[in-house]
């Protein structure tokens, strides 16, 4: 499997509870390398553009409000099959369905406030990385 990069976000429910280090430890234990990382505060509009694919869903407005409610940590994770590996470490969207030991099983508060985002495919990973990071911030 090829080395990939994926976009990860540690969401407001997790930054609020000071869980960045614990979540990063899960990534590193799984063999994912954090190759770029920054803490930013999104506007509701910026969150809306990021989650545009969900704009017809009933939870879209609530999701954008939540993502803009407090700072997030955006990061690029790198490794063999990083996109799928990250999804595995994150666990299912709804923490009630997330496998034991996954980030969402251990830390998520609800389906809406589920601690982490991870890209779901190579195309979305490339788009999402470019949304938050410039070429200068990504060391080769
Ligand atoms: P994932 O974050 O696992 O890729 P997704 O892309 O389907 O899940 O949804 C994006 C985010 O939207 C998800 O992390 C939390 C929110 N969300 C999804 N389904 C929801 C629901 N039924 N109620 C409230 N929020 C939801
Ligand atoms: Mg998704």
Would you give an account of this structure?
The chain has a 4-stranded antiparallel beta sheet with strand order 2-3-1-4. The chain has one domain: Nucleoside diphosphate kinase-like domain (Alpha-Beta Plaits), CATH 3.30.70. The protein is of the alpha+beta class. The mean pLDDT is 97. It has helices at 12-16, 20-29, 44-50, 60-67, 82-90, 103-107, 122-132, and strands spanning 3-10, 33-40, 72-80, 116-118. It is built from 7 helices and 4 strands, in the order βααβααβααβα. 2'-deoxyadenosine-5'-diphosphate (DAT) binds next to loops. The active site is at 117 (pros-phosphohistidine intermediate). Its EC number is 2.7.4.6. Its cofactor is Mg(2+).
Strand order of the largest sheet: 2-3-1-4
**How many strands, which pairing sense, and closed or not: the largest β-sheet?**
4 strands, antiparallel
Helix content: 25-40%
Number of strands: 4
Domain unit count: 1
Per CATH, the architecture is: 2-Layer Sandwich
Determine the number of helices (DSSP H or I, runs of at least 4 residues): 7
Low-confidence stretches at least 5 residues in length (pLDDT < 50)?
A: none
CATH topology category name: Alpha-Beta Plaits
The secondary structure category is: alpha+beta
N-to-C CA distance: 19 Å
Q: Beta-sheet strand percentage? A: 15-25%
CATH superfamily: Nucleoside diphosphate kinase-like domain
Bound molecules: 2'-deoxyadenosine-5'-diphosphate, magnesium ion
Any idea what the radius of gyration is? 14 Å
Succession of helices and strands: EHHEHHEHHEH
Cofactor: Mg(2+)
Family: Belongs to the NDK family.
Active site: 117 (pros-phosphohistidine intermediate)
Function: Major role in the synthesis of nucleoside triphosphates other than ATP. The ATP gamma phosphate is transferred to the NDP beta phosphate via a ping-pong mechanism, using a phosphorylated active-site intermediate.
């Amino acid at each position: 499997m090829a080395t990939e990069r994926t976009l990860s976000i540690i969401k407001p429910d997790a930054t609020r509870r000071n869980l960045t280090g614990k979540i990063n430890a899960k990534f590193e234990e799984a063999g994912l390398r954090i190759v770029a990382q920054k803490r930013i505060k999104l506007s509701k509009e910026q969150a809306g553009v990021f989650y545009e694919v969900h704009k017809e869903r009933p939870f879209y407005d609530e999701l954008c409000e939540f993502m803009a409610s407090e700072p997030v940590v955006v990061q690029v994770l790198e490794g063999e099959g990083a996109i799928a590996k990250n999804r595995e470490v994150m666990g299912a969207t709804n923490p009630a369905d997330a496998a034991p030991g996954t980030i969402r099983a251990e830390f998520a508060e609800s389906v809406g406030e589920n601690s982490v985002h991870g890209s779901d495919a190579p195309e979305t990973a490339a788009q999402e990385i470019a949304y938050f990071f410039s070429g200068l911030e990504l060391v080769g």
